[in-house]
Specification:
This protein is an alpha+beta fold. It has two domains: 197 residues, Four Helix Bundle (Hemerythrin (Met), subunit A); 196 residues, Histidine kinase-like ATPase, C-terminal domain (Heat Shock Protein 90, 2-Layer Sandwich), CATH 3.30.565.10. A hairpin with a 2-residue loop joins strand 4 and strand 5. Helix 1 packs antiparallel against helix 2 and helix 3 packs antiparallel against helix 4. About 2% of the residues have low confidence. It holds the Pfam family HAMP.
Length: 493
């Protein structure tokens, strides 16, 4: 059964501390015993010294009373007598010890001494001079004898206690030596037990470190570690083995998934190439599809101008018309400089102003310093203007306003086409802004707003706000294109 590391540490600590506490407790007990012996002897010495003092205090009041029969002296004598009687124990059992027998003898002599004091007082009251004189002399003799016995018993008590004190001191020295040996043993035992416990932890950890080095080199085929250690370390070893085996399985699974993903990416690349070709064909189709009615009207307008006006204006008109056709039909690039797109738009505006001199007004606000530094997808502004001409002013003959604004704000290029036409219903604008997927069927006609929206989604798939429509009924519509200049279009041919 595996032992817990915590349990081993607790046993190690408590065992060492227990041995030290027991040895220190015994040492403390021996010291207290020595103090008890010394204190006992000192208390007895104090008692005998006080006893001698109280006996000597009897002589003065007794002599005054016998000589003058003073009531004050009698009162002091009686108080001193009572004090001495209180110092005599009520019972004095018989002991075998000579020291205890001597104490018992002193108490008997003290009792007789106090009885003689009472006899002397009574003889004084009876005016028996000879009798209380004799009693006083006997009391003096007994007083001297008691003093000698007290000195004798004090000396013998000191000798008796000294013998016990020496034996205790000797035993204490032996105990201290044993305590020192016990402490040394406890220290060595604790160190040995601790080293053993540490080795049960460090050895598996060393094996784990070696296995970790092998794993860092990519070798996951090394065998598992099997070590019987404490519960916590064994749990770590087992978890490490499981982790190594799980990583090995994960690597195998990742390699298998990688091969599958590689095939998927190859297929996706082929699909993207097909989609590129599809988009290019859509652009070329849009460039090739010109509104025959528009061509007829514009050419007819040129013919009429040639008849009723001078050749200069007709030449300018035809030059702009040729520029516009060249811009829309001959250009095969998907991404063009901003200047190229704006020049085509200006030619388109000139043609529209000639066609609709009193119906529409056009404005173009472009930040000139960005014309040569920014690039955009080809043909994204002219279709939006054409969409406004066709749909925004149905039935209107005057008052139409169409404005194009191009500006740069930090890293964003903002292009907006705004009109004051009838507006686009919300459900229609939401439908136009939906992204087409490859599974969806949509019209093959590539002119107009819908084509611009889907091409922008294709060029900038990560920009969710590349184009937006803001419209209110009978107020107008603004289409805003936001191109992040730091983001490369997904196709650049």
């Amino acid at each position: 059964m595996r032992e817990s590391l915590r349990l081993q540490l607790f046993l190690n600590i408590f065992l060492g501390l227990g041995i030290i506490v027991i040895s220190m407790s015994y040492t403390f007990y021996s010291s207290m015993k020595i103090q008890t012996i010394v204190n006992s002897q000192f208390r007895k010495e104090q008692f005998y010294q006080k006893l001698q003092y109280e006996i000597s205090e009897v002589r003065g009041p007794l002599l005054d009373y016998l000589s003058s029969r003073s009531s004050k002296a009698l009162a002091a004598l009686l108080i001193q007598e009572q004090t001495l009687r209180n110092m005599v124990p009520e019972q004095t059992p018989v002991y075998k010890s000579s020291y205890r027998l001597a104490e018992r003898e002193i108490f008997f002599m003290l009792t007789n001494y106090l009885d003689m004091v009472e006899q002397a007082i009574n003889m004084k009251r009876g005016r028996a001079i000879n009798e209380y004189t004799q009693i006083y002399e006997d009391m003096e003799k007994m007083n001297a004898h008691i003093a000698r016995r007290i000195d004798s018993i004090s000396l013998s008590g000191i000798r008796e206690q000294l013998t016990a004190y020496e034996s205790v001191i000797e035993a204490s020295r032996v105990l201290q030596f044993h305590n020192l040996l016990t402490i040394i043993f406890a220290f060595l035992f604790s160190i040995t037990w601790m080293l053993f416990s540490i080795s049960k932890v460090t050895n598996p950890m060393h094996r784990l470190a070696q296995m970790a080095e092998e794993l860092s080199t990519g070798n996951f085929d090394i065998p598992d570690i099997h070590i019987s250690s404490v519960t916590e370390v064994s749990a770590v070893v087992e978890a490490f083995n499981n982790m190594k085996n799980d990583i090995r399985r994960y690597i195998t699974e990742i390699q298998r998934q990688k091969s599958i993903e590689q095939g998927y990416m190859n297929e996706k690349l082929r699909n993207m190439k097909m989609e590129q070709l599809l988009k290019r064909m859509e652009l070329y189709t849009m460039q090739a599809q010109m509104n025959p009615h528009f061509l007829f009207n514009t050419i007819n307008t040129g013919v009429q101008l040639a008849i009723i006006e001078n050749a200069d204006k007709t030449a300018a008109f035809m030059e702009n018309l040729a520029t516009f056709f060249r811009h829309n039909i001959r250009e095969r690039k998907l991404i063009v400089p901003l200047r190229h797109e704006i020049e085509g738009l200006r030619s388109y505006f000139y043609i529209l102003e000639i066609r609709f001199p009193h119906t529409y007004s056009f404005s173009l606000d472009v930040q000139e310093d960005i014309l040569d530094t920014c690039s955009i997808p080809a043909l994204i502004l002219q279709p939006l203007v054409e969409n406004s001409i066709i749909h925004a002013f149905k039935g209107a003959h005057t008052g139409g306003e169409i404005g194009v604004r191009v500006r740069k704000e930090e890293n964003m290029l903002l292009l907006s086409v705004r009109d004051n036409g009838s507006g686009i219903p919300r459900e229609v604008s939401d439908s136009l802004l939906k992204r087409y997927t490859r599974d969806q069927e949509h019209t093959s006609k590539v002119m107009g707003l819908e084509n611009v929206i889907q091409r922008l989604y294709f060029f900038y798939p990560r920009n969710r706000e590349v184009i937006s429509i803001e419209s209110e009924t009978h107020t107008g519509t603004e289409i805003i294109i936001r191109i992040n200049l730091e983001e490369e279009p997904c196709i650049k041919l």
